[in-house]
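As promised in the previous annual report, we have extended the structural survey to additional targets. Below is the entry for Peptidase S9A N-terminal domain-containing protein.
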Amino acid sequence: MKPPIPRKDPVAVSAHGITWHDPYQWISNAKDPAVSHHLQQENRYTETFMADTVELQQQLEAEMLSRMTPEVSTPPERRGPWLYYQCIPEGKEYPVLCRRRERRDGFAIAFFDYVRGHYREEVLLDWNEIGVQFGYVNVGTYQISPDQRYLAYTLDVSRGERFTLFVKDLWTGSILSNTNIEGVVSLAWGKDGKILLYTVSDDLHRPFKVFGKRIDSEYEDMLLFEENDKSCCVDIASTKDCQFIIINSNSRTSSEVYFMDSTDIATGLQRIRRRETGVQYFVEHHHGFFYILTNAPLGDIKVVMENYYLARCSVCNIGSNEWQ
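The corresponding structure token record, generated without further manual editing, is:
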């Protein structure tokens, strides 16, 4: 049996002033029946080629499984009164996202909480169930809202590495109907848990736009930021104290970071420092100060690219570039 050979269908592709022809771009379209047919042919060829090793494969799989603990769990992460963690149940392939309430001090309080079922484990997202439904699953990222009510996550079930946004109401267990958005890469919640920010990617899978969505509204999502420089990718995150949303626009050698008040995104963006070739910086907030890990020049002293230092600047004085 000969291996299947994919057809060549050259398509001109241009980026950064360079044009080339990609004969296999058609394979990136997971919805094309021809792609599915070719993958099935490859699978049949692999099964035929490896047929005489089936028993060995089973032996190796059994030995590897015997060396694994029955259930693997991550350390719990505290968010409000809840502890969040992932575990891989015995006999399952994918993880499960769970939470349970943290035990309160005092025997009587802990006892009554237990009787009321407060410490019962809640399964928030089961990769295995999704995998059974679609035959494949890849969860890109997930974020719990600050009020612990919503779970926002991105999901790829097409093997195309293009993720779709879903938001689950943890009170009702239902998926919100107005949140299924394709091409989402990163997520961040506003402090009140009602506004979700997300980045979307272009055809080259480069995240370049930031949108804001009100979870309880049917209004069109608001475009908050767009990066037109194709050498830069955009990422968003909430500061650890949930006071600000940070938007990072990074290339391989430079950074430009913006921030906004997470309680009111209508106040707009503020830039921390203008992009400068060779200068990178990463930002976190604590008690009125931005703490900045950077390799920016110190006065007249030029800092080597690999040498980073920690600086800080008052939020009220961030535009001055007077970092301590």
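Helices lie at 33-49, 54-66, 107-115, 127-134. Residues 107-112 have pLDDT under 50 and may be disordered. These points will be discussed at the next consortium meeting with the crystallography subgroup.
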